[in-house]
Design brief:
Number of helices: 16
Number of strands: 15
Strand order of the largest sheet: 3-2-1-4-13-14-15
Radius of gyration: 21 Å
Strand content: 15-25%
Shape: globular
Largest sheet: 7 strands, mixed
Helix content: 25-40%
Distance between the termini: 23 Å
Length: about 400
Amino acid sequence: MPARRLSADWLVTMAGPPVAAGAVLLDDAGRVVAAGTADEVPSPPGLPTTHFAASVLLPGLVNTHTHLELTGLAGALAESDFAEWIRRIIALKATFGYDHFLAAAREGVRDCLAAGVTTIADTGDSGAVIEALFEAGGSGIVYHEVFGPHPDQCDESLAGLVRRVADRRRFTSDRIRIGVSPHAPYTVSGPLYQAVARWARREGLPMATHLSEPPGEVELFRSGTGSFADMWRRRGIPLPPHPLTPVEWLERHDALGPDLLCVHVVHAGEDDIARLSRHDVPVAHCPLSNRAHAHGTAPIRALLDAGLRIGCGTDSVVSVERLDLLAEARDARRRAGLSAHAALGLCTTSAARALGLESGIGSLEPGKWGDAAVVAARGGTTMDPLEAVLASGVGDVRATYIAGREVYRAA
């Protein structure tokens, strides 16, 4: 990859205040050499240089939760009962083969790049997303899902997960990691959570799980009632002891830790937040998905005040129809009373920390990867550049770079 220099009317590094007439110099390894004013950043003779007028140059966005294998299914399912919705999603997926999921994943990766997203944390069980991300020269963590709500399924489910991870490892790289995802407390038994966590930690694999998302999940553990409890009874699955919270359930089975990304965390009181903080658990916050399913509002302000590492995620197109990460950040900002810098951090610096990738991404600083997005300043260059970025939409992204390589350019 040849070295290159990018510049714009505004530069947002996320490591300091916005810079008017800023530039970034990238080396031939795709790393940032310098970032600052255009006058300060060298412009070696013959070096490829691109300037974006009336635009903001910023770190590539980090999406902490996607399901890209579901791309193309927007509006496919409408169901008021979440347990039934999950059942129908599983049934629908069973009608497709691997080629379908790979085509969907490729489209999903392209959609992310066109939205300025350079790193994704994806969850799925087809195995297609990591192949699509590898083909695109992308960046991220792909968590392979495992299911098994009955304790008797533990050994079989874990063995299947081990086989699938071994098969998909061939698509890892210095920018792509494979991880594992016990799906959720209503689809994974306590013993399986414990077994997966032990194995993943021995293997050095990151983990993710949906946690405290729908009210029915809370009811299952609090009182043994609700739609998921009814589903377990019909299938002869022993109910968990209660009263508990889903967070307590994971703690009992040694799953909580800094390597377990907890997705959603809508229903978490003070005690649960204290537990998450004690275990240094990162959180993926998906406000628009939560709203679409009427799950409630996550306590984002309390989670941030507890010092948790939080990033925004878009979830799947089956939930939100369009993967617009900045729209998620705007919603989080409104609900938590965040500054523009903190809100954008949920898609950059804070999101990178949530994934444990902050040493390489999240800001444009010397030594980090040259992952960048260029957003048209809809409100003009006299507008605060942070506000301009947050006010933008997917269609305002002009270009996207991964390690200095242009991976998207608006027509």
